[in-house]
Amino acid sequence: QKEVEQNSGPLSVPEGAIASLNCTYSDRVSQSFFWYRQYSGKSPELIMSIYSNGDKEDGRFTAQLNKASQYVSLLIRDSQPSDSATYLCAVNPVGIQGAQKLVFGQGTRLTINP
Amino acid sequence: DGGITQSPKYLFRKEGQNVTLSCEQNLNHDAMYWYRQDPGQGLRLIYYSQIVNDFQKGDIAEGYSVSREKKESFPLTVTSAQKNPTAFYLCASSIEGVQPQHFGDGTRLSIL
Fold it and tell me: Can you give the pLDDT at residue B1?
């Protein structure tokens, strides 16, 4: 089992709808979770961090964390064509302060259709 | 303007040649990282460093070497032992003890 798993997609969503991206992880003691957006040919850009169970909202983005079920998700409301990108889930598998290794999923390619 | 600078943007390697990718940051971050990304794949950790003069191997360190002589700089050398070096190389940094990681613009390495 991979440490961090994402559906590679492509995920196609109509403009204005909600895009839902999911990520599961294998290490139960993981403490920190991140979503990065990567446009084609560019480097990843951090869009959300979440550290505790529940929802965290930032503008049109909501991250959801469920440590008991070992999944983290990203919701994008009112999807725009500019949201079309690959979304990478990253997990700190140990959570020991200073040991800041991140494990990345393979990414989900999202396409927003006008 | 604070950030992470990677150079060059594109690099070509000849057979048997070592090449060095530069990564400089002015964010005063303690930790720095090198990742490799292949087409359609996620990021794989090559090496990371949490303090000057110390670094650790990541998941795919074979064929690569690094140094950390200054806090601001973490160059990556792709040696001739790395038989499949064609990839997108990303450097990242983070504040010690605080996440997350921020990335440079990357270097694309190809074989001539």
Answer: 64
Mutate to test the interface with B, among A102, A103, A108, A109 (most CBs of B within 10 A): A102
Cα R_g (chain A), whole angstroms: 14
What is the Cα–Cα distance from B32 to B24, expressed in whole angstroms? 10
Q: How far apart are CA A26 and CA B10, in angstroms?
A: 36
As beta bridge partners, residue A12 has: A111
Measure the CA–CA gap between A55 and A32, rounded to whole angstroms.
14
Which stretches of chain A score pLDDT less than 50? 96-98
Q: What is the DSSP string of A18-82?
A: -EEEEEEES-TT--EEEEEEE-TTS--EEEEEE-SSEEEEETTEEEEEETTTTEEEEEESS--GG
Q: What is the token pair recorded at B51?
A: 């303090």
Contacts of B42 in chain A (CB under 8 A): 4, 88, 104-107
Residues of B with CB under 8 A from a CB of A: 31, 35, 40-45, 48, 50, 58, 90, 94, 96-97, 99-106
Task: Give dist(CA B76, CA B21) in Å, integer.
Answer: 5
Cβ-defined contact of A92 to B97 (cutoff 8 Å)? no
